[in-house]
Amino acid sequence: MISVEGLKVEFGVKPLFSNVSFVINDRDRIALVGKNGAGKSTMLKILCGMQKPTAGVVAVPSGTTIGYLPQVMILQDDTTVREEARKAFAGNTEMKARLDKMNQQLAERTDYDSDEYMALVQKFTQEHERYMMMGAENYEADIERTLTGLGFERSDMSRPTSEFSGGWRMRIELAKILLQKPDVLLLDEPTNHLDIESIQWLEQFLAQSAKAVVLVSHDRAFINNVTNRTLEISCGKVVDYKVKYDEYVKLRAERREQQLRAYENQQKEIADIKDFIERFRYKPTKAVQVQSRIKQLEKIVPIEVDEVDNSAMHLKFPSCLRSGDYPVICDEVRKNYGTHTVFDHVTLTIKRGEKVAFVGKNGEGKSTLVKCIMNEIPYTGTLKIGHNVQIGYFAQNQAQLLDEELTVFQTIDNVAKGDIRLKINDILGAFMFGGEASEKKVKVLSGGERSRLAMIKLLLEPVNLLILDEPTNHLDMPSKDVLKEAIKAFDGTAIIVSHDREFLDGLVTKVYEFGDGKVREHIGGIYDFLQTHNIDSLDSLGHHQATTTIQQPASSGNSTCNEQQQAENSAKQSYEERKEQQKKIRKAEKAVKDSEAKIETLEKRLKELDEMLCQPERASDMKLINEYTSVKKTLDEEVERWEQLSEELEKYM
Q1: Among 381, 481, 584, 616, which one is most buried in terms of CB atoms within 10 A?
Q2: Are 341 and 472 within one domain?
Q3: Cα separation of 541 and 479, whole Å?
C-alpha cells in the first residue's frame, strides 16, 4: 500500500535515520516505537507527505487516502460538535449536490431518445451506485456512533466546540479522521486525551473497521491489543519485527544481547590490531604488516548497540512518618457547580497502605474529588483526612509551579536527600533528561518535559499519601515502569487518577468508578473491574452498578483521640459489612440480568410463533399451537420470577 525505500532524514551533522526501507500492507497494524527523539513523529509526517525526507522515496499508489492525527493541531471553534464532524463527509456532500443536479436535469428534459439524455442517465446511475457503495446515506448514524464511542453524550452533539476543552476537541478531530475511513491511518499518541471506555472503543474500531494502521503510543496495553507488527527506530535504523509489542520486547532483548557480544568481540579485535600497530610501528621489518593492520582498522564499521534501558533502575520514595489507619474518609460528600451536581452521596474509606484508582469518563468528577481531598475547593458533607497524613500531590498544573530560573539538575538537587543525591543523573536519565538536557533551564522546557520534571520532584519528597492525577500522560514506557515500580514499593497510601490500564494493572487493589453523579467501589484490580464492566456492557456502565456506602460518624472540630479511634473502628466494621453486601448485590444483579435475557428469548420465540399462526395454512397446526401455549406459560412464570428478583435487588440498593 505504501512503500518506503532508502529513506534518510538529516537535521544536523548526524542523520536522524538513514537507509530505511519497509512496506505498509493492507490490514497491517504497526506500532512505531523507539526512544524519545528517535524520529517517530517525523516518520509519520513523512508518510503523510507533510515533511520531505533528505533522501529516499515514499511511494503511495494513486487513489490511496491517508488520515493523520498529530499530537498537537490547530482546532476550529466556530461550529457545533455535529457540524464539525460532518466536515469529514465534505466529498459526500459535493457528490450528493451533483446527483441532485443531474436528477433535476433528467426530470426537466424531454429528449428521452437522444444520445445526450442516455449519457446523462448512465452517468447518474454510475455516480448514484458509487454514492450508495460509500454508505453516504448513513453518515449521520456513523457520526453519532463514532462520537458516542469517543465519549460524547447525545446532548453534546449540538453544543459549540468552543465549550469543550482541548482534549475533547482533539477527540472531535480523531472522530473526523475515523469517519473518513482512510486506507492508511497514522495516529500519534491517540490515547492521550481518552478515558478507559473510549480507549476500548477505539481498540475495537481499529481492530474491526480500519484498513492499515501505523501508530505511536506509550500505552502498552493499547498497542498490544491493536498491533500485529512493530517497527523500531534505533541507532538511526528501522528494524522490522513481525510481532506485537510484548513479543517485540523479548526479541529486542535477545537482539541486544547479540549486539553486545558482537560489539565486545569487535572491541577486542580493534584492541589487538592497535596493540600490534603500537608494538611494531617503528620496526622496518614489520612495516608492511603494520600498514596492512592500519588499512584493516580503517575498514572496520563500528557496531552500534541500542541504548541501555534505564527502567531497570530502582527508585524508592524516602521514608515518612506513619499515617493513621484511615488517611481518607468521605461521608455524604457532595459537589455542585451552580445547578450542576458533579457527584452526591460519596461515602468511602481508604485504608493506610491501599493503592486505589479513580476511573470513569472525563468530566465525571475524578479530579474534582481529588481537589476536595486537597481542600482546594468547597464541598458539602464530611471529608476527614487522617492523623499525621503528609500528602504528595501531582496535578496537571503542577508543572507550572516549578521555578523557571533553575536548571533541571538544580530543581532535583534542591529536594534530593541522602544517598539519592548520588543517583540524580541516573534518575534524570530514566525520565529522559540525560546528558545536556539536565542543564536546560525550566523556562525553556515544553509542557510535557515540565510534567516529567514535576513527577521526579514528587518521587523524592517524603510523603505517606500520594495523589496522582493522570501521571503518565507525558511519560514514555521506560519512565512509566520506573514510576510504577516506585509506587508499588511505596509503603504509604496512593490514589491514582488514570486511564492507563497497563500502568494500573498490578498496582491498585481497589477501583472507584465515577459516573452518573455517583462513586461506586469495586474490590480488585483494574482488569477485574474491566471484566465486570464488559460483562455488564459498556453502554450500561454506571447504571446497573450498586452504589457503595460506608457509614462514618460525623466528625467535629474538637474530636478527641478516643472518638477518632471509635470512628476508625466503625469504618473498619462497615467496610467488612459493605464488602459482604457487595457480593450479595452482584449475585442479585446477575440473577436479574439472566432473567431479562431469558424473557427476551421467550418473547422473540413467541413473536415468531404468532407470525406463523397468522398464516392461513398454519392456523390450525396443533404442534405450533401447543408450543405457543407452552412458551406463553413459561414467559408468564419468568416475568413473575423477574419481578421477585428485582424486588430482592432493590432491598440491597
Answers
A1: 481
A2: yes
A3: 32
